[in-house]
Amino acid sequence: MGTGLGDITITQTEALNHERALRRWNEFWAAAERCSALQVHLDGNVDPAAPRHPDEFPIGSEEWIEAKYAWEEFWAAKSDSLQRYLEEAAAIQGEAVPPSSGSAKLTSIRQKLNRIRALNKKWGCPDEPWASVSPNLLWNIANIPASQISMIGKIVGPAVAPVAACASFGVAAKMAVDAIRLGDATAAVIGMTDPPPHPMVISAFYNANVLSADADVSRPLTALKGTHVAGGSCVWIVGDADAMMAHGFRPLGMEIVGVGTSSDAHHIITPSKGGPQLAIKAAMENVEATDVTTWLHPDVIFTARKGTFGHGMSVGGGWELTAQHLGMAKGRLYPMALTEGELHADVQVHQAKFVQAQGCEVERGYSGKLSMGVGGINSCVISRPWDPQYIEQHLAARAHASAR
Predict the structure, then answer these.
(1) Domain boundaries, the chain
(2) Which contacts of 203-211 are long-range, i.e. CB under 8 A and separated by 24 or more positions?
(3) Do the Cβ atoms of 174 and 261 come closer than 8 Å?
(4) Residue 130 above 80 pLDDT?
(5) In angstroms, what CA-CA distances link 202 with 39, 101, 208, 213, 271?
(6) H or E element, residue 233
(7) The whole model's pTM is what?
(8) What is the pLDDT of residues 56-109, one digit of tens each?
(9) What pLDDT was estimated at residue 226?
(10) Residue 98 has what DSSP assignment?
(11) According to the model, what pLDDT value does residue 296 have?
(12) Which fold has domain 162-403?
C-alpha cells in the first residue's frame, strides 16, 4: 500500500509551525541585550559579514520583512546568551534515562520536559523551534498506510510502500502477483492512497502546464488542456484463486494473467516509446500467442479515464483498473466523457477506437492497463474474464466440503 506525494498537508502544516517558531526564536536571541556581538556592531565596530539592517527598507515592505529575518538569523547565531542557554539545556538532556521499568523511564522523560520548561521560563524565551513540530510528521510517512492496514487486518507479512508515481498501482499488483506465484503469500492487500488536492500540488501541476484550469470538466483526448488533481484511495485484495475459493471467497472483477514493469531510462517527464513497450511485453509473457494476436487486433477499444477521475499521484491507475475490471466482468466498458468528433487532431491521426459517452458492450477477451509515471516508470496489467464454470465448480466443492 503506497502513496505518491505522501500526506503533504501534514508536511506543510508542520513546516509552517517550525518556520514560525524559528522566527520567534531568532527574534528573541538576536536582541542586542542578549547578543554582545550585535552591541559591538551597533557601537561602530561593524561586522563586515552582517546583512543589511532592516531599517534600510520601508517598514512592512517585502524587502523589510526578508531583511528582518536575515538580520535576526545572523545575530541569533552569535548570541552569547543563547550559547549559555544551550549549555544549560544540554546538561538537562544529557542525563541518562534510568535502566528500569517503563514507568520510571516515562517519569524521567517528563522530568526533563518540566526542567526545560522551567529553563525557558527563567530566560523568558519562546518555545524552542526543535520542539515545534508534531510527531505526526513521522506518523504520516509513505509506509504508514500499509502499516495501518497490517494492524487493522492483523496481517503479519511485510507491509511495504511501493512509490512509482502514476505506475504505482501496477507496480503493487506485480509485487503481489510475484509473491503469490513464488509461494511467499496466498493473498496480498494492495492499493494506493493520495491526500486531498493541496494548493501546493495544484500550483505544481499548473506550472507544469498539465492542469485543466478552465473551470470545465476535463475530457481526456479532446482539447489536451490537462487533467484534474484528485485525492483518495483504491484498495484490492489479490489472492491465489484456488486457495481463496477454498475459503468461500468469490472472485471479483477479472483474473490478472500478467503484470510487467519497466523504466524508460530517458527523461523525468517525457515518456519514451520503447520503455512502455517493454512493460507490455513483460506483461504478455504469461499470455498465449493466439490470445496476444486477438488482444492486438485493430479493433481494440481504448479508454483514458484519469483526466476525469482526477490525477492522483499514485492512485489514479488503481481507479482506472477498477473501472476496467468491474465493467469488463459484465461485458461492458463504462462511459467516458467523450463524444464523436471531439478527439483532438493529434489523437485522430492514430485512427484508434475509444469508448465514448454511451459506453459500449465488449466481447469476452483480454484487457490491458498501461500506466506511465513521472521519472519514466511504467506498469502494464493484463487481465481476462474469469471462467464461470471454473468458479462455480470450486465454490460448489467448498460448499460440499462445508456441508459434511
Answers:
(1) 2-135, 162-403
(2) 205/229, 205/311, 208/269, 210/311
(3) yes
(4) yes
(5) 46, 49, 10, 10, 22
(6) strand 232-239
(7) 0.88
(8) 999 999 999 999 999 999 999 999 999 999 999 999 999 887 776 668 888 888
(9) 83
(10) P
(11) 57
(12) Peroxisomal Thiolase; Chain A, domain 1 (3.40.47)
